[in-house]
Each structure stands twice: as structure tokens, then as C-alpha cells.
């Protein structure tokens, strides 16, 4: 019996339990590639799964964790062979498929992306789903003709994972970035990432007017609810907002005014089922457009035994930037 360390989620009388324990390799789910996981990370969704605060986990027992980077051990998939360095994010890992907080993972080869040249497995997980999502949002805004000369770009949830990577990438691309945060103490951190202005998130949290003063040409929103409604109502004519998160809520109390009177676009971002070609393009861009020094500044490392406790802290909005998890 081959056992490995994993964070296992089980159903309990009330909710779920999470424990770092031994898992039997024979219980791994079907897949044509087995990977030795070296690094993982902690995303907001991991916090939801670890604490059981939202029904993210759809199968029990589950191994939590939505992202890993590691080395292929076995493969019957034509694209992958033992020794290949790979990244896997999303695709239901940690939700419907046994996930990433484990020394071993078995997944479909079609889910994997090759670790881009020049990026270490640790750096890939410092980026993780959060940073990958930030890049998908930047690419989506570019497809809506956003360029630095069209005006400022606002980033909400700025000190979080998606926000921190979005600021670093946008600043490197030459944008004037307005960072919205609830943590004024992080203003220097946000400026060091490249934010030109830092605003208090309270400015954007009250119910939105149908149209407000035009303040930005684009935006990346991790927050949802009134914040997203305010972003839309303050977007310049022809601008676009990429919606990727719900840190303040699932609702969107807006009107059609920004769309029909200013031609504003609302672009949805999903990282989980994102098709392969778009994934490869986003990872390639991350390898070139994210300053490594800034990535280091964003990143804090924790051990396998600290993940469960950190899950509660990310939901409380207490994690700055990104956490990487050393697995093996
Ligand atoms: P983090 O917890 O790292 O960041 C979220 C940030 O949102 C916090 O740091 C905080 O920023 C801000 N925030 C938290 N609570 C509130 C609140 N009540 N009101 C306003 N702002 C708040 O999470 P991630 O960056 O990993 O994820 C951000 C969001 O994006 C989550 O909702 C997540 O589910 C979603 N997401 C979606 C993906 C997709 O595929 N669409 C993929 C990845 C993430 P500050 O302190 O600066 O105000």
C-alpha cells in the first residue's frame, strides 16, 4: 500500500472537517498522468473548501487544493512523459476531482500546461489560479481595446492575490493603476507593486448611481456586489470591466445605463474551465509580463502543516498577496 501526505476533507454531522493525514494511492481517481506535487498555493476558493464555508467540495472524501506544480511520474497521455515539469490549475481539482494538497495527484493529461521556460515550479504557484486569473482579465481587457493611453485602470481587492498580480502586470505594461483596498496600511506595498494611486474601498462600496463621473477606462474586479456596480457606473465611454470575484458578494445591483449610454462592456472571467489555448497564452504572458522581483515581494511561503489555518485567514481578508505551499 503506497501512502502519501494529503489534506483530506470529510463530511461531518455539521459541515465538513479538514485534516493533514495519510492518503492511499489506490484511492486516487482516474487520470492518465500521475504527478509528484512539489508546490501548491492558497486561493480564496481553497479557503472556502478548507473551512467548509461554501459548498465548494462536491465529493467525499476530497483532497483539497485547486493548483499544483510538479513533475510527471507516470503517463499514458501522448503529450507527457516522466520527468516533464507541469502546472495544473482548476478543472474541478479540490471540488469534484482529488486535488493538489497532496504529495501525489492523478489527473487528465489534457488539463496540464508545461511549466513555461524560465519559470520555476515555486514561481508558478506564487502566481497560481489567482495570478492566472489576473492575467486572463488583462488579456480580456486588451481584447476590448484597452491600452495605457485610454486612461487609468482600477483594481479592486488590491492587496489580495488576484489584485496584487493584476497591479504588478498592469504597471509593467505601462498602465496608470488605481488600487482600491480596505487596508490603508498596505498603501506602500501597493505602490511598490506599481499602483499610481491608492483609494479606500469604501469609496466604491455604497449603492451605485446609474452613471457616475467617468474615472477609468478599464478595471479588474475581485469584489462583486456594489463595488462592481460602482466600477461600471464610473467607467469611461467605451471602456471595459473584467469581473472575476465575489469577495463582497454574488449580487450585482446595477442598471443598464453604463452599457447603453456609454457602451461599457462587462467581461466575465473564469479560470476553472478555461480552454487549453487560452491557458497556454496566459502562462506565456505571465512568464514575460510579470516582474519576478515583484512576484517575490507578493509571495509568502508556508508549510503543508500551515495550510488549514491559513484557509480561515484568507476568507477574513488577512492574507496579503500570495501564499505558496511547499509540498515535497
Ligand atoms: P484574496 O482573499 O487574496 O483577495 C480578496 C481581496 O478582496 C481581499 O484581499 C480584500 O482586498 C478584498 N475584500 C475581501 N473582502 C472584501 C469585502 N467584504 N469587501 C470588499 N473587498 C473585500 O482572494 P483572491 O485574490 O484569491 O480571490 C479574489 C476573488 O476572486 C475571490 O472572490 C475568488 O473567489 C475570485 N476568483 C475567481 C476566479 C475565477 O476564475 N473567476 C479565480 C480566482 C479567484 P483589500 O484588503 O485590498 O481590500
CATH topology of the largest domain: Quinone Oxidoreductase, Chain A, domain 1
Strand percentage, roughly?
A: 25-35%
Number of domains: 2
Name given to the CATH homologous superfamily of the largest domain: Medium-chain alcohol dehydrogenases, catalytic domain
What's the end-to-end separation, in Å? 20 Å
Bound molecules: NADPH dihydro-nicotinamide-adenine-dinucleotide phosphate
Shape by Cα distribution: globular
The total strand number stands at: 16
Briefly note the structural class of the backbone.
Answer: alpha/beta
Helix content: 25-40%
Classified by CATH, the class of the largest domain is Alpha Beta
Order of helices and strands: EEEHEEEEEHEHEHEEHEHEHHEHE
CATH architecture of the largest domain: Alpha-Beta Complex
Rounded mean pLDDT score: 97
Number of helical regions: 9
Q: Stretches where pLDDT falls below 50 for ≥5 residues?
A: none
Quick overview of this protein structure:
With 328 residues, the protein is an alpha/beta fold. The chain contains 9 helices and 16 strands.
List descriptors:
single chain, 328 residues, alpha/beta, Quinone Oxidoreductase, Chain A, domain 1, Rossmann fold, seven-stranded mixed beta sheet, six-stranded parallel beta sheet, 9 helices, 29% helix, binds NADPH dihydro-nicotinamide-adenine-dinucleotide phosphate
Explained architecture:
By secondary structure, the chain is of the alpha/beta class. It folds into two domains: 149 residues, Medium-chain alcohol dehydrogenases, catalytic domain (Quinone Oxidoreductase, Chain A, domain 1, Alpha-Beta Complex), CATH 3.90.180.10; 140 residues, NAD(P)-binding Rossmann-like Domain (Rossmann fold, 3-Layer(aba) Sandwich), CATH 3.40.50. It has nine helices and 16 strands. Strands 3, 5, 6, 7, 8, 15 and 16 form a seven-stranded mixed beta sheet that branches. It has a six-stranded parallel beta sheet with strand order 11-10-9-12-13-14, with helices on both faces. Strands 2-1-4 form a three-stranded antiparallel beta sheet. Helix 1 crosses helix 9, helix 2 packs across helix 3 and helix 2 crosses helix 7.
Amino acid at each position: 500500500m503506497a501512502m502519501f501526505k494529503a489534506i483530506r476533507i470529510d463530511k461531518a454531522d455539521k459541515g465538513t472537517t479538514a485534516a493533514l493525514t495519510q492518503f492511499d494511492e489506490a484511492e486516487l481517481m482516474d487520470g492518465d498522468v500521475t504527478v509528484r506535487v512539489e508546490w501548491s498555493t492558497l486561493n480564496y476558493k481553497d479557503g472556502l473548501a478548507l473551512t467548509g464555508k461554501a459548498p465548494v467540495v462536491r465529493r467525499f472524501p476530497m483532497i483539497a487544493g485547486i493548483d499544483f506544480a510538479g513533475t510527471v511520474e507516470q503517463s499514458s497521455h501522448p503529450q507527457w512523459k516522466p520527468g516533464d515539469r507541469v502546472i495544473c490549475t482548476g478543472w474541478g481539482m479540490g471540488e469534484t476531482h482529488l486535488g493538489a494538497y497532496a504529495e501525489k495527484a492523478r489527473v487528465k493529461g489534457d488539463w496540464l500546461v508545461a511549466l513555461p521556460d524560465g519559470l520555476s515550479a515555486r514561481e508558478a504557484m506564487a502566481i497560481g489560479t489567482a495570478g492566472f486569473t489576473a492575467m486572463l482579465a488583462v488579456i480580456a481587457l486588451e481584447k476590448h481595446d484597452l491600452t495605457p493611453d485610454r486612461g487609468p485602470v482600477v483594481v479592486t481587492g488590491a492587496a489580495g492575490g488576484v489584485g496584487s498580480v493584476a497591479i504588478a502586470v498592469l504597471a509593467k505594461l505601462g498602465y496608470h493603476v488605481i488600487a482600491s483596498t480596505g487596508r490603508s496600511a498596505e498603501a506602500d506595498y501597493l505602490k511598490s507593486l506599481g499602483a499610481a494611486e491608492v483609494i479606500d474601498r469604501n469609496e466604491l462600496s455604497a449603492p451605485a448611481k446609474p452613471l457616475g463621473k467617468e474615472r477609468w477606462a478599464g478595471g479588474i474586479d475581485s469584489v462583486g456586489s456594489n463595488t462592481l456596480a460602482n466600477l461600471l457606473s464610473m467607467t469611461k465611454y467605451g471602456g471595459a470591466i473584467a469581473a472575476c470575484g465575489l469577495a463582497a458578494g454574488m449580487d450585482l445591483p446595477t442598471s443598464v445605463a453604463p452599457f447603453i449610454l456609454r457602451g461599457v462592456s462587462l467581461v466575465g472571467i473564469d479560470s476553472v474551465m478555461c480552454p487549453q489555448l487560452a491557458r497556454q497564452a496566459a502562462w506565456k504572458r505571465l512568464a514575460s509580463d510579470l516582474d519576478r522581483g515583484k512576484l517575490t515581494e507578493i509571495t509568502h511561503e508556508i508549510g503543508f502543516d500551515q495550510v488549514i489555518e491559513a484557509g480561515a485567514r484568507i476568507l477574513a481578508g488577512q492574507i496579503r498577496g500570495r501564499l505558496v505551499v511547499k509540498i515535497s
